[in-house]
Amino acid sequence: MQRAVAVAPDPVLVMNRARALHQIPRDLRGLLHRVAIGIKDIIRTKVWLSHLQRTSNAFDSSAVAILRAAGALIIGKRTTTEFTLTNSGPDNTNPHGPNRTPVGSSCGSAAAVADLQVSLSLGSQTGGSIIRPASFTGVFAMKPTWNAISLEGQKSFSPTFDTFGLFSQHRGLAATCGRLCPRGR
């Protein structure tokens, strides 16, 4: 598949993190212990810069922090359309056919899950960038209620419409992530 990864994962960094997670006692492991997760390029992580950033990251976005606290293994950034403004953009290929598109600004996140590169991938939606790529690539998606997860650390296009969302290979994994969403906002 073409260009599913925006920022290639550092194998040494990923393996060191996986080993550190493995050392956590079983009774203290989070719901997403060692689940491989990709992150849409516009979402901040402590380790990888997005193509929109010029300085190092001092923090994870709120959504990445929730996943990391649950034991997720963040393995890299996924491509997005330029500034998340259009449906055209990087040469992402739908894993179900080289002449098909995964469509939408979260196309790299959906395509990476459909291509079995990661079990879960974080995306964002303003007007359909979670639900459309999921339907085009045949993966499960979850788009929480607006403002259920703070947009802190995400390049925002429309603060009144933007939400984090995720793509998953399995309905159960998406449901597990739903239990991680903060309540009562």
TrEMBL record:
GO molecular function ontology, one term from the record: catalytic activity
Q: What is this protein called?
A: Amidase domain-containing protein
What Gene3D superfamilies does the database record attribute to this sequence?
Amidase signature (AS) domain
Any idea where the Amidase domain is?
A: 22-169
Taxonomy of the source species:
Eukaryota, Fungi, Dikarya, Ascomycota, Pezizomycotina
**InterPro entries linked:** Amidase, Amidase_dom, AS_sf
Q: Name one Pfam family in it.
A: Amidase
